[in-house]
Predict the structure of Guanine deaminase.
Amino acid sequence: MTTRRPAMRVLRGPLLSFDADPGDGDSPASGSVRYLEDGALWLDEGRIRAIADYTELAPRLPAGIEVVDYSGKLMMPGFIDTHVHYVQLDIMASYGRQLLDWLNEYTFPEECRFAERAHAESVAEAFLDESLRVGTTTAQVFCTSHPGSVDAFFHAARRRGLRMLAGKVLMDRHAPDGLLDDTLGGLADSERLIADWHGRDRLGYTLTPRFAPTSTHEQLDATGAVLRNAPDLHLQTHLSENLGEIDWVAELFPECEDYLGVYERFGLVGPRSTFAHGIHLTQPMRRRLADAGANIAFCPTSNLFLGSGLFDRQACQEAGLATSLASDVGGGTDLSGLGTLKAAYQVGQLLDQPLTAWQGFYRLTLGNARALHLDEHIGRLREGGEADIVVLDPEATPLLARRTARCRTLAERLFALMMLGDDRAVHATWANGACVHQRDITSQAAAVAS
């Protein structure tokens, strides 16, 4: 089952997109930002056929084409989340344990429930609805070790026409029996899922060893072999999130130089590898990651919630290491990219590393797309690009409206959205050229249902 064919239409209103990294200065680098006060996006067959000032584009439009008026709003590329666990949606805000206790007390029991396909389907639907409600149109997603959890997620994503990356968790030790793979059977399941889903419509597969302690040497070695034979696959795992985790890795892999050395030994560090957290890294480790072309997913709400530490974005920048922004739900406390930006700014303030709104919104869009090697498809508003769009409302709440009224510049309006915005600030979300979330309609439907 696939989504209906997107209709041709025009979206009219203010629009913002990034063509390059704006840098960390108060003013964006020259040529990095595209902003049109009265812009137009001509959508056709799921792509952006043209982008221009409305007055310039209007004479070229077919007679009678639908024009959706977003005056007073702000159109941007759909937000991208580089690290999230859809299967942990229902354990968000579970009382604060640190990482290893939190895994044993909340995560593993919850993930055991995904042995039931019906449960996986229900949560996948809810997760994607919530993601679209906060403007996220693409994510790199952890499923569970149950193949059915991956099938359920990809079915739901494909039906909505979404570009998504996801994978089956690989772990063959140090977890409940209901979550453990057979050492090589987990790879066989992954190969079946790759054959079924990788490259199908807008979907891609990510090899997903949970983290080094829950995979044996044999499983990590087999995962590396799959990656070497299929370099177009992605890989996602965790790295140096928690000090207790790091000590445990040292006990389990005494032959390796450090935590990163485990993944290097088995060929898991490459240009399509995303390592979540990376809080407790040395500068030589950051340089090794940079040399391999990997990226670190900065997960600020999760790092704060679990007390894992403060991520040093500047040290990564100095090492040439790419970073991306992620929610890490369920350790993260907000699926919203705006919530992630707010927490990232606060972490930066504690480290004297201010995050501008320019850099923040770049990271949520083109920056994250580049980190995931998806920027040929998504991440900016351009002719020929896929039509994934979030429409933000700078007057979504009384408080945000008051602050916006006092803003004199676009930078101030963006920063107000970054700090005061939440799901209510997402007026609409478009994916593959179709409107997949409309705030007022969704709110009315919920009111009727209640």
